Amino acid sequence: MDSAIDTAPSTLKAGEPADRSLPAASSAGPAGGVKRKAGDIRDRLEQEIATGTHPAGERLDEQVIAARFGVSRTPVREAINQLVAGGLVERIPNRGAFVRAMGLAELVEMFEVMAELEAMAGRLAARRIDAAGAKRLETALVACEAAADREAHDAYYYENERFHEAIYDACGNAFLAGEARRLHLRLKAFRRLQLRFPHRMRQSLAEHRRIVAAIEAGDGPGAEAELKGHILVQGERFADLVATLKP
Predict the structure, then answer these.
(1) Which of 4, 30, 32, 178, by CA, is between 20 and 30 Å from 241?
(2) Which one is the CATH code of 104-245: 1.20.120.530, 1.10.3720.10, 2.30.40.10, 3.65.10.10?
(3) Which residue intervals define the domain HTH gntR-type in the entry (predicted)?
């Protein structure tokens, strides 16, 4: 089964009007605006690839995408580069950028490895976290709570990223943190998608609270178990969501 689930044909047609639901660019200046637009486009394409709107093997045409979102090709090119870095898209010399085939079995395997890496990071963080690290972790938890209260799934995902980053930094093992970050990037689209499963965001938040409690208590085995379950359930929820997307 490909990562791009066959639920609908691509809607990226030449001459389409700009997608006006794209958030406004940052007012921080031209460079900041391009970066913001690229991130917004990446997020939209990322979700569409994960849900099968753009199936495996489809070519992503920069000009068509730029017309769709009403932007120049510069942020589109940057967005596609980010998708390439995340493993969702591959560039083929002299042909362009294409949605990469990724089977459900491969995704489940990556979630299993991710669970082990996060579990180890949590166990080490419980032994090594300092006052500054604990404060950063608590701040990230509060931000997750605020996003959950607003039912803001995408905002919650990005606060969730910061939450896990705090754990990676607190573990005191740069190699482990680097490997976790690389795999986190590969799974980003699917970790975002599973948060839209009914009640998953609230369940994730409850898991975050237990993780923080274990780390702050210096309970290495407890933090390890909580983080492992936290990631494995994401893989299960993703598989459930895929099943609901089948025609």
Answers:
(1) 178
(2) 1.20.120.530
(3) 35-102
